[in-house]
């Protein structure tokens, strides 16, 4: 169960991070430079994904007994564009739970 939640959280982290990149690097420039308001579509999608990310972060944290510093890293990288790639590298450096 721990490994399944860990993998679910990793996948959600990447999806949420990519939605942030889409919002900041695609939708916002399209709105302010070209007049296409993609923010009305991408913004709520990203918001819902982030709201799903937070409980998964807490569940994965409790199941895997992560240190507070790692929880802080996972939270902070969720609001920084391209932070999901840094977090994924941190996951790869950590030993998988249950192994």
List the helices and strands and how they pair.
Blueprint (H helix, E strand, L loop, with lengths): L1 H33 L4 H26 L3 H10 L5 H11 L6
Helix pairs in contact: 1-2, 1-4, 3-4
Q: Short description, anyone?
A:
With 99 residues, the chain is mostly helical. Helices cover 81% and strands 0% of the residues. α1 (2-34) runs antiparallel to α2, α1 runs antiparallel to α4 (83-93) and α3 (68-77) packs antiparallel against α4.
Record keyword descriptors for this entry.
single chain; 99 residues; mainly alpha; 4 helices; 81% helix
Q: How would you characterize the largest beta sheet? A: none
- Which residue ranges are poorly predicted, with pLDDT under 50 across at least 5 consecutive positions? none
Derived from helix and strand composition plus strand pairing, the structural class reads mainly alpha
Inertia-based shape: elongated
Distance between the termini: 12 Å
């Amino acid at each position: 169960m721990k490994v399944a939640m860990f993998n679910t959280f990793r996948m959600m982290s990447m999806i949420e991070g990519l939605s942030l990149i889409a919002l900041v690097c695609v939708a916002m420039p399209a709105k302010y430079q070209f007049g296409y308001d993609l923010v009305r579509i991408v913004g709520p999608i990203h918001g819902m994904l982030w709201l799903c990310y937070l409980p998964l972060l807490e569940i994965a944290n409790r199941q895997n007994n992560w240190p507070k510093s790692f929880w802080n890293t996972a939270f902070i990288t969720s609001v920084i564009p391209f932070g999901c790639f840094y977090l994924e590298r941190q996951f790869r450096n950590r030993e998988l739970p249950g192994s």
